[in-house]
Amino acid sequence: MDQTIPQQPTRNTNTVSFIPIGGIGEVTKNMYLYEYGNEILIVDCGIGFPDESMLGVDLLLPDISYLQATQKKIVGMVLTHGHEDHIGALPFILPQLPPMPSFCVSLTAALANEKLKEFQIKSTIQTVQFDGQERRLGSFSCMFVHVTHSVPDTANIIIKTPVGTFYHGSDFKIDITPADGVKTDYLRIAKAGEQGILALMSDCLGADRKGFSQSEDSLGENFERAILETQGKCIVTTYSSNISRLNQATQAAEKLNRKVCFVGRSVIRAKIIGQRMGYLQIKDGTEVPIEKIRKYRDDQLVLLVAGSQGQENSAMSRIASGEHTDISLTEKDTVVFSSDTIPGNERSVNALFDTIAKRGAKILYSDNSSEFHVSGHGSEGDLMLMMSLIKPRFMVPISGTYKHLMAYKALAQRVNDKNNNVYIVENGQELLFSANSVSYGKKIDLRTVYVDQVSGEEIEGFVLRDREQLAKEGIIILMVEVHAGTGQLVSAAEIVTRGFSPTEADALTQSARVEIQKVLAKNKGRVTNWVHIRKMIEEAVTKHIFSKLHRRPLILPVIIEV
Q1: Would you say residue 3 has pLDDT above 70?
Q2: In a domain, 2, yes or no
């Protein structure tokens, strides 16, 4: 935090508090709070994605402990667009909060409500339009403004408060020729700027890229060329919510008289919603169900497949590994990755590339071809244009890592180098806005919330530590029969090892039995404290293994009283 500003100022009703719960210093888990008086407005509710060190974890969630503990009223939630890092946490978060009205534009609402339905959550997200109308939520008035991004119906939100107006500029870019033909509402944005914006909360993920971000419209011809040059199947994988991209690939396939098959639950769900909403147009006879693709030659097919991030058990991963029952890769196939790798997924995506390469298929991805994915986030030119249209008094970069936050600050100084009015915050750091000033408020302690997607249950940190120990060090189970009257071994301990070579396992089994016998030989008479016996055996075997192998496997003694 560069600015010299007061800490913990006197709070009054003439301030609005802005608190990022997620999305700062990271690209995902987007969730932001605006507070005025006794009221809270929530913007977005996204998931994060685990890295390889988070064993058995499917999702990361924003920590809502502050919302659960507060006495303030949550007056509502507004959602900016349909990507998972902005709506994916809804089924996990909404049941933990009091009922509230929630609003977003049509496609976002359809994707969100389908997700809630899948998890059997009764809450419903209400649909609004880009009609210039304000939705009143307590002391806040929210207007949805259309912007271009990589998913249709993306909104920035103008939030009016008694203190001033905020422009929540979540993910956007300035696309003159968007794939769906619906351009950014420059007039409404400029009008808001003329009326006065106290603070711009802006997407900053492309702040370190020169120029303007490339248009989505440029991809259609590239898909056609890739399909035309493929002698076998052409497989396209992208984010499932990127319905415009699915539509472009489908239209390319139709031009070249290829059939299209949607593969993977999330892609099929997006297809159904896209068709229903009119964003995905598929001619009669183009689509074939997966159970019928064997009726067609490979060079007659384009497959749109879920799993561009290398997710375990995704359709793309199963195809690459040869585990899919209906689809196999050949040397004549091409796999197009029409997506960037989400930070944290690099290892899993690169492993997926290698698995595909072993099958002999051609791979097209961002490192070897820039023709099949363009960023949905604005570059330098897009971001500076938004600053110029909005003309905010203060700016706060969001939805980026720290290098992006600092790059945005440098851009802002180029647009208006007279004012040092860009504020860098961390997740949990409150900013207090008055009509004329900004100051840092309280700092909320936030923890990482790990979730098993299947059960929906939170995974405690100690469980992750045990899993990591199992993966790195192995496990040894000691089954020891002890006579209750004498405290001595009844028979040789049965020992099960995992994570050791056969030679190591044999040696450990013999030496661990000796250590157990030494421990129990010290007993005299009836056993009265079985917990102590278990602990002594565990400590002795742990110490012995570390002295021999310098490893600390998970030791599980099972003491059987005889």
Answers
A1: no
A2: no
